[in-house]
């Protein structure tokens, strides 16, 4: 008797629609994770290459979150301890962002590229992609 009630109360189209939405969401999350991982690997490889070219003692720090920012500060001629500004909400994070831009500006100029490439990341919507392109040029393209 209970089985008959279950079969009559089951709305097959809504079950199919719910399953389809679940599959689409899972696929979207999977693609976001894969894309994030690919960008992380690209950025780490680029900064490791830049650090090697600039004779940093530990270029492998490019792979470690937070330590990679400290490495960028060192390459940009700031003390690594500025990284502790991350512990100060909002204002500290803003200061870290400014120091990172100044550091990358100095690094890009030292590698014979325009320093303003470091400002690409603050451009709305397309800034992230432009920054990744600029980072690739600075890391792997030989400047004559």
Q: Could you characterize the architecture of this molecule?
A:
With 144 residues, the protein is an all-alpha fold. The protein has one domain. It has five helices and no strands. It has helices spanning 2-9, 12-53, 67-75, 91-110, 127-140. The termini are far apart. The model has no long low-confidence stretch (mean pLDDT 90).
Per-chain topology:
Elements: H1 2-9, H2 12-53, H3 67-75, H4 91-110, H5 127-140
Helix pairs in contact: 2-5, 3-4
Task: Write down the secondary-structure element order.
Answer: HHHHH
Averaged pLDDT, please? 90
The gyration radius over C-alpha positions equals 23 Å
**Class per helix and strand makeup:** mainly alpha
Determine the strand fraction and express it as a percent band: under 5%
Instruction: Tell me the number of strands.
Output: 0
Uncertain residue ranges? none
Distance between the termini: 83 Å
Task: Compute the number of helices.
Answer: 5
Number of domains: 1
State the helicity in percent bands: 55-70%
Q: Give the overall form.
A: elongated
Major β-sheet, in short? none
What is the compact description of this entry?
With 144 residues, the protein is mostly helical. The chain has helices at residues 2-9, 12-53, 67-75, 91-110, 127-140.
Please give a handful of descriptors for the protein shown:
144 residues, mainly alpha, 5 helices, 65% helix
């Amino acid at each position: 008797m209970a089985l008959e009630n279950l079969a009559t109360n089951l709305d097959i189209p809504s079950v199919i629609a719910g399953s389809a939405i679940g599959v689409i969401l899972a696929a979207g999350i999977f693609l976001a994770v894969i894309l994030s991982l690919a960008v992380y690997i690209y950025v780490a490889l680029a900064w490791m290459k830049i650090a090697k070219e600039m004779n940093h003692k530990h270029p492998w720090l490019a792979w470690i979150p937070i330590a990679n920012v400290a490495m960028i500060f060192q390459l940009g001629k700031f003390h690594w301890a500025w990284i502790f500004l991350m512990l100060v909400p909002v204002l500290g994070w803003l200061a870290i962002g400014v120091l990172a831009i100044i550091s990358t500006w100095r690094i890009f100029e030292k590698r014979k590229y325009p320093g303003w490439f470091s400002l690409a990341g603050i451009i709305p919507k397309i800034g992230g992609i432009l920054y990744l392109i600029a980072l690739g040029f600075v890391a792997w393209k030989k400047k004559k």
